[in-house]
Amino acid sequence: MAQFQKGLKNILQKHPNDVVFLSALRTAITRSFKGGLRNAYPEQMLATVLRATLTQNPNVPPSAIQDVAVGTVLSELGGSKAARMALNHVGYPSSTSLYTVNRACASSLQAITTIADSIAVGRIDVGIGAGMESMTRNYGSKAVPTQLWPELKESGVKDARDCIMPMGITSENVAERYGISRADQDAFGAASHIHASKAQKDGLFDKEIVPVSVTNPPGKGDGDGSPTPQPSETVKVSKDDGIRHNASTESMAKLKPVFKEAGTTTAGNSSQISDGAAASLMMRRSTANSLGLSSSIKGKFAGATVVGVAPDEMGIGPAYAIPALLSSLEINKEDVGVWEINEAFASQALYCVRRLGLDKALQEGRINPRGGAIALGHPLGATGGRMVSTILSEMGRGGLGDVGVVSMCVGTGMGMAGLIVRE
């Protein structure tokens, strides 16, 4: 225990080589196919948050930003060309390099981590970890390969075959194997919407969201036989639009299972497919000090860990990634004030909470206090970045403390967790 107390003390101290956040911005997260960003391109959303990063950090010259990592899962050609074009389009010089990262649901947390690692080892001084995803445009195959080596589909190794198991079936597996009831899942789902609704009405998301200007094509009219076409219009999208403001456990209980006839996973206790983007500006603390930006530091990135789990119950990943992270940093779960655990499904999120012994934290409103992916949505490549922007603004509010953990399960069977310290 004394050793772990030393670990916490070390994490809370300020060191010249700390990797710190200067900003963590995101777009609104909106419903795919029906939401406000349905007509936006992933690289358009990325361009918006990259431009806003420069605007909100006027004392950081664009030429000082050396490398940008962008998490994306579904974009054409891995998103690398479009993302690079977006970077240059909004004012970054050609000397700023860029690459994309795909670790499924953890892609943008991985992007943040790789930039942080590059800063930590001295490869760069300043970088951006970002993420983008338009599931409206790119979710046609349901994130399953359309051209796959046939031998893998018939592999004698179950874990290999299970990597393309529908995510909803993995949710059902977790619920069945670990006794997560339908009633508990519905209550968890309703709570996500209730928390998110309150946070939105209280304006708690406003500072982290950058509006996106979207041009919607002409409408088809009123459908009465002699439609009057509506002209195209440009709107600014600045609100998460997947939140059910009237959600309740009772309303959730009326929804039918989606993946198995007698299952417990429904549209109400699962994450939404969504569109969005996020970007975090990071640098070495000594660099921030030399640029006169000490007072602008929002927090620091203390580390991240990835673990593997069985693909057919991929949702349990955080239950293993979080202990590995805390152990590596020599701190206890009691040292963590607020948790962002991605709600891919209520079944897996609840399992992780229970296995980690975080039931009290859940009751106290310290897990996803502003709601999670069930209410806000899960734009695969941008989710980690969204969670980082939210936790940075949430930590310290209402006595939640200055240490936070971001974690998510990862398709094909992984879990990732990162630790953030508020300045």
UniProtKB/TrEMBL annotation:
Catalyzed reactions per annotation: an acyl-CoA + acetyl-CoA = a 3-oxoacyl-CoA + CoA
User: Which UniProt key words apply to this protein?
Assistant: Acyltransferase, Potassium, Transferase
Q: Which Pfam families does this one have?
A: Thiolase_C, Thiolase_N
Which organism's genome codes for this protein? Letharia lupina
Its cofactor is: K(+)
GO molecular function ontology, one term from the record: acetyl-CoA C-acyltransferase activity
Q: Looking at the keywords, is Ligase present? A: no
The protein in question is named acetyl-CoA C-acyltransferase
Q: What residues does the Thiolase C-terminal domain cover?
A: 298-421
UniProt pathway: Lipid metabolism; fatty acid metabolism
PANTHER family hit by this protein: 3-KETOACYL-COA THIOLASE, PEROXISOMAL, ACETYL-COA C-ACETYLTRANSFERASE
Q: What EC number(s) does this enzyme carry?
A: 2.3.1.16
Annotated region (Disordered), positions in chain? 211-251
Lineage summary: Eukaryota, Fungi, Dikarya, Ascomycota, Pezizomycotina
EC class of the enzyme, as a word: transferase
GO CC field = peroxisome
Fetch the InterPro entries from UniProt.
Thiolase, Thiolase-like, Thiolase-like_sf_Thiolase, Thiolase_acyl_enz_int_AS, Thiolase_AS, Thiolase_C, Thiolase_CS, Thiolase_N
User: What's this protein's family per the entry?
Assistant: Belongs to the thiolase-like superfamily. Thiolase family.
Which residues are annotated as active site?
105, 378, 409
Q: Which GO terms describe its biological process?
A: fatty acid beta-oxidation; phenylacetate catabolic process
Superkingdom to which the source organism belongs: Eukaryota
Q: Where is the Thiolase N-terminal domain?
A: 19-286
- List the PROSITE patterns hit by this protein, alphabetically: THIOLASE_1, THIOLASE_2, THIOLASE_3
